[in-house]
Design a protein that fits this description.
Blueprint lengths: L3 E2 L1 E4 L17 H14 L3 E4 L1 E2 L6 E2 L2 H14 L3 E4 L9 H11 L3 E5 L3 E2 L17 H7 L4 E2 L3 H13 L4 E6 L2 H12 L7 E7 L9 H15 L3 E7 L4 H10 L3 E4 L6 E3 L2 E2 L3 H14 L3 E2 L2 H8 L10
Parallel strand pairs: 1-16, 2-3, 2-13, 3-6, 6-7, 7-10, 10-11, 11-12, 12-13
Antiparallel strand pairs: 4-5, 8-9, 14-15
Helix pairs in contact: 1-2, 1-9, 3-5, 6-7, 8-9
């Protein structure tokens, strides 16, 4: 049987701002519509953040999540993966408030504190739709995206033990894989672990084939056959390194959270467009995309009937 590929789509995130693309989902209706389109295009997993519907600023408000999650759940069987990262400028308590109550099947978990530099992006734009955007980007020059061991263990307790969620362990550098291996040895988490190699964020590992090979070799050495991995490459390497990930035995993530483009110099008009592109590439290479239920089985998820929304 051909190996099935988990295709994650990250719908909106907290990195890009509304001035950067008219196609970035902002309102709950935008997010729901875009997520459903991505699922219909073949996404196995939908990774979701919330934004203030008035101005598009990243939000941790559970009431905003509740405006789009039921519609997505009722319209598709895709696995819903909620962020615990939120934004680098939110407190840990803010970031965990919604997922702790909503008890998703999956949630993301940053495996360490890092510099998370978005400030170079502000130099590409001069016309801002909202007054928060430019300062938000500039502030990342002096912000540490905090996720200490204590924070990580709090997520384990609140969302894993308390809510039955499985984690997408977001690894921005090789040291984060060491942390995953530590918790696996401590029996604090169980195999199969699902790693997301996050590449191309200023402050983390760069988006290059050489770095991807180093990440995979580190995971192979530390985790053996107890893990699966996926790759998200920020910006222009999105499709290239995503394809390389699959060839190396992994999975792939696309979406407007990670890149606003569909090709050099051309904005993607939707998340579904990116899903369709990577799906076409992979199917032409002979791979098959996992269905949501196949993904649930591969990652040993609790099921959509056991979430809190």
């Amino acid at each position: 049987m051909p190996r099935k590929i988990i295709l994650t789509c990250a719908i909106t995130g907290s990195i890009h701002t509304p001035s950067m693309s008219p196609h970035l989902p902002v309102t709950p209706d935008d997010i729901a519509t875009s997520a459903i389109e991505a699922a219909n295009a073949g996404a196995s997993v939908l990774h979701l953040h919330a934004r203030d519907p008035e101005n598009g600023k990243p939000s941790s408000d559970i009431d905003v999540f509740r405006q789009f999650l039921p519609r997505i759940k009722n319209s598709t069987d895709a696995v819903i993966n909620l962020t615990t990262g939120g934004s680098s400028q939110m407190t840990v308590e803010q970031r965990l408030s919604a997922p702790a109550e909503l008890a998703p099947e999956m949630c993301s978990l940053n495996m360490g504190s890092i510099n998370f530099g978005l400030f170079p992006m502000k130099d590409r734009y001069s016309d801002w739709k909202h007054d928060w955007e430019e300062p938000f980007l500039e502030n990342t020059r002096d912000v540490v995206f905090k996720n200490t061991f204590h924070d990580i263990e709090t997520v384990f307790k609140m969302l894993g033990d308390g809510g039955g969620a499985k984690f997408e362990f977001e690894c921005y550098d090789v040291g984060h894989i060491q942390s995953v291996a530590f918790y696996l040895k401590q029996n604090r988490i169980q195999a199969p672990v699902f790693l997301q190699f996050v590449m191309g964020v200023l402050g983390g590992i760069d988006a290059s084939p050489e770095s991807l090979m180093m990440m995979k070799e580190t995971a192979d050495r530390l985790l053996g056959d107890q893990y699966q991995f996926s790759v998200l490459a920020a910006g222009r390497q999105q499709m290239t390194l995503g394809t390389m990930s699959v060839i190396l035995g992994g999975n792939v993530r696309v979406g407007l959270e990670d890149s606003l483009m569909i090709s050099r110099g051309e904005l993607a008009v939707s998340n579904a467009q990116q899903v369709t592109k990577i799906r076409t590439v992979l199917e032409e290479l002979g791979y098959e995309i996992a269905t949501p239920d196949e993904t649930r089985e591969m990652l040993q998820l609790k099921g959509a009937d056991k979430v809190g929304f």
